[in-house]
Design goal:
Strand content: 15-25%
Structural class: alpha+beta
Shape: globular
Radius of gyration: 20 Å
Largest sheet: 8 strands, mixed
Distance between the termini: 46 Å
Strand order of the largest sheet: 3-2-6-7-8-9-1-10
Number of helices: 9
Number of strands: 13
Length: 262
């Protein structure tokens, strides 16, 4: 059985994609089309583009297609539902901003009346996120904040954090994510070395001018993260650290006062 936190390399990721497809999942991931990156249905893991910021389209195109046949009328005027069967879908390599956008779609399509057609597709979809290691200055989380960060896993089922040498720390976030990890074979358990690599990545983002983070490591969650944010003062950040210690974690604060206060 695959542990809830594991480390895989690029070939292992490709094998995971192949296993998901062989078990009936439709896998949708960023792919490169010339100079553009777009979400597309893939047939093998090598089609998935790992190095990108944000694709030019969004998962909405697959959750709410612009055109599809929902009904047709018979000669006697009877309306027959023709909504096609929905296979299980996996969105692979989703950035936190796109995952948040999906959550906003969930709210929109269930605002006053639940949209049965949208919910049928959404209920069959799982999200495997990919932490963003090089956000653009104009990206949502760096330009607008709003509780989002390049490593945010709030709306993910699985989160992948790039490490060194083409490897990834893979974390199950939800029960659906744990089910996806059952198809992952050949990975190794997360170790303190992998945890340190993920922590160093967060520190580099902070030094580059992004938000501050509190990270800690324990047996249950090797890179447990709490976002501090731009508006949190240093004293409040220290209070947060003390609370984490009281909960049994061993956190360290990654911060710069001029960043946190500004």
């Amino acid at each position: 059985m695959t542990p809830p936190h594991t480390v895989i390399d690029d070939p292992g990721l490709n094998r995971w994609v192949a296993a998901l497809i062989s078990h009936g999942y439709t896998v949708i991931a960023p792919t490169r089309d010339g100079n553009r990156v777009r979400y597309s249905t893939i047939k093998e893991g090598s089609e998935f583009t790992r190095e990108y910021t944000t694709p030019q389209n969004s998962p909405k195109a697959f959750l709410f297609p612009q055109r599809e046949e929902l009904l047709h009328a018979t000669p006697d005027g009877t309306l027959v539902e023709t909504f096609p069967p929905v296979p299980p879908q996996v969105f692979l390599g989703v950035r936190p901003c796109d995952a948040l956008a999906i959550q906003r779609l969930d709210q929109l399509f269930n605002w006053d009346t639940a949209d049965a057609w949208y919910n049928r597709r959404r209920g069959a979809a799982a999200i495997i996120g990919l932490a963003c290691t090089n956000p653009n200055a104009t990206c949502f989380c760096t330009a607008l904040g709003g509780g989002l960060g390049p490593h945010d896993k709030t709306h993910m089922d699985v989160m992948m954090t790039p490490l060194d040498h083409g490897s990834y720390l893979v974390e199950a976030v939800t029960a659906s994510g744990e089910a996806l990890l059952h198809h992952l074979h050949g990975g190794g358990p997360a170790t303190p070395r992998h945890e340190a690599a993920a922590q160093n990545l967060a520190r580099e983002l902070l030094i580059a001018g992004y938000d501050a983070w509190v990270l800690s490591a324990n047996a249950d969650d090797p890179i447990y993260r709490v976002r501090v944010g731009r508006g949190l003062l240093e004293a409040e950040a220290q209070s947060l650290v003390e609370r984490l210690v009281g909960e049994g974690h061993s956190p360290f604060l990654v911060s710069q006062p001029e960043r946190i206060g500004g």
